[in-house]
Design brief:
The strands form two sheets. This protein has a three-stranded mixed sheet. The protein has a three-stranded antiparallel sheet with strand order 5-4-6, with no helix packed on it. It is flat and about 40 Å long. It is built from three helices and six strands. The protein has two domains: about 70 residues, Arc Repressor Mutant, subunit A (Orthogonal Bundle); about 40 residues. The structure holds zinc ion. Zinc ion binds next to loops.
């Protein structure tokens, strides 16, 4: 089978979700793959039609449908049974955006790597903007193994 290089354009900022009050080690986990995360983001969050979302992920419409179904089942399982929901640790995934958080209005800003960090928040004008994702200090333009890959 041909392995296609998929391009995931957004990156989960949080990788573990769990019910409050139960230690992680005592919880059963379900793990969403990055493909499943991306399918949810494109179809459910951004509201793209499946044809368009499939095209953006470089997979067929059928494959996209399967990925999305699988993602929905896993999320449902986590919610219904109170399981911990994890997002797969990826390797060689190149995020195209950096995420900054405005401390004043709490708005998050997704800034592509080739655009400099804004000096002020475009929403409220606050200068207190901080990097919010886990890609701090990463070189630009290189597809390096990410930190999640290291156990
Ligand atoms: Zn702001």
């Amino acid at each position: 089978m041909k392995k296609t290089q998929k391009y995931i354009t957004f990156f989960p900022v949080f990788s573990v979700f769990k019910p409050v009050g139960i230690p992680l080690k005592d919880l059963e986990a379900v793990t969403l793959t990055l493909d499943e995360f991306e399918a949810i983001r494109l179809a459910d969050f951004l509201g793209y039609y499946q044809e368009k979302a499939a095209e953006m992920m470089g997979v067929s419409r059928q494959t996209f449908g399967r990925i999305l179904d699988s993602a929905h089942k896993k999320i449902a399982e986590a919610i219904v049974f109170g399981k911990c929901l994890k997002i797969e640790e990826g390797e060689n995934i190149m995020p195209t955006v950096r995420i900054f958080l405005c401390e004043d209005c709490k708005k998050t800003l997704n800034i592509p790597f080739d655009i400099p960090k804004p000096m002020i928040c475009p929403e409220c004008g606050s200068p207190y903007i901080h990097r919010f994702d886990r890609w701090r200090g990463r070189g630009k333009g290189k597809c390096r193994r990410n930190r999640w890959g290291q156990k």
